[in-house]
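Q: Predict the bound structure with zinc ion.
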Amino acid sequence: MAIENVPDAREIEQTAIRLYFTAWEHVTDIIIPLLESHSGSIQLIDRTLTPTKDEMDFDGSIISVITEAEAEAVLKQYIARAQPDLHLCYALIQQSQEIALKARICAVSPFLLLLGSEVKSWAKPNGDFTDFRTLDAVDLIRVVNAVCSKPVSEQFATKFDIIRRGRNKIQHLGSFKDAIDPIAALDVLVEQWLELFPDRSWLQEFKGIIIDHHISTIVDDSDFGEVWSMLGNIERANLMLTDRQRRRLFGISDKARLFDCFYCRHESKWDDRGNDSRIATLEPNGNIVHCHLCLENTKVSRIRCFDPECGCDVIYAEGDYEGECAVCGEPQPLASEASA
Ligand SMILES: [Zn+2]
Ligand SMILES: [Zn+2]
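A: Predicted complex:
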């Protein structure tokens, strides 16, 4: 006899990663407007108040600046209204964690997933694996720690347990009273990646998810392809993550100077330079810029940019962008022009 549809560890892990990034995008959508309101790039409006004529622009848009207390009330309401989405995020996180742990067990042997199930309940000859009852979530960490070469950290095991036991406990991870804090959800996602997918590149996997997304089968991505999407995701991640989190997730040191990768710029048609989406760093030899997204290495010359306000001393020295500054993107005047 043979059992049909015996799971493949790599495929299961891929499912966990897909759920992970769906949760990531939900959390991002909640945190970014909070950060923007904090930095002043979006204006908070108290919709419960009726604006006076003076507080309205000629087109009816509200221009009044609200008080600190009013702003606090608005943000509280924002967090309250985000709760259903945050509960969804935690459901996705929980599922992603369970599936990732199952993938680890499956990599040792898929049949370990059947541990503890009643043999009487096993499917008939030529049965389908999906009809078998597999390990309960409550036992996953114990099994991983028994059969896998790398055990799950105590810290992760505690958090996994809190999340597994349900939503009522989730709120205790956050700082908002009686509500899930989106920043706590982000912290969970960062730690989860490092714990469960340590051999996978966050940037490459996120790009892969975008490439495989169903929308790419029907949308012409010549303008808004995966690199364009990823530069946006990097920009948002850079806004949300602490230096330490970014270093651990992207493998880029806190102090590293970040440069534009012109392959990615060109590919994405993203021309808004000077933003937070830079993801290329100088290699230790000082003569190569490595892009952590497209993985291209480009030779650079260490000449100071002609624009004194730029201050960069890294100029691309090969390819289509030869002679352009790796920060401001300005083509440098030729030596003969400069000396003239
Ligand atoms: Zn690149
Ligand atoms: Zn420059």
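A: Residues 68-108 form the longest helix (41 residues).
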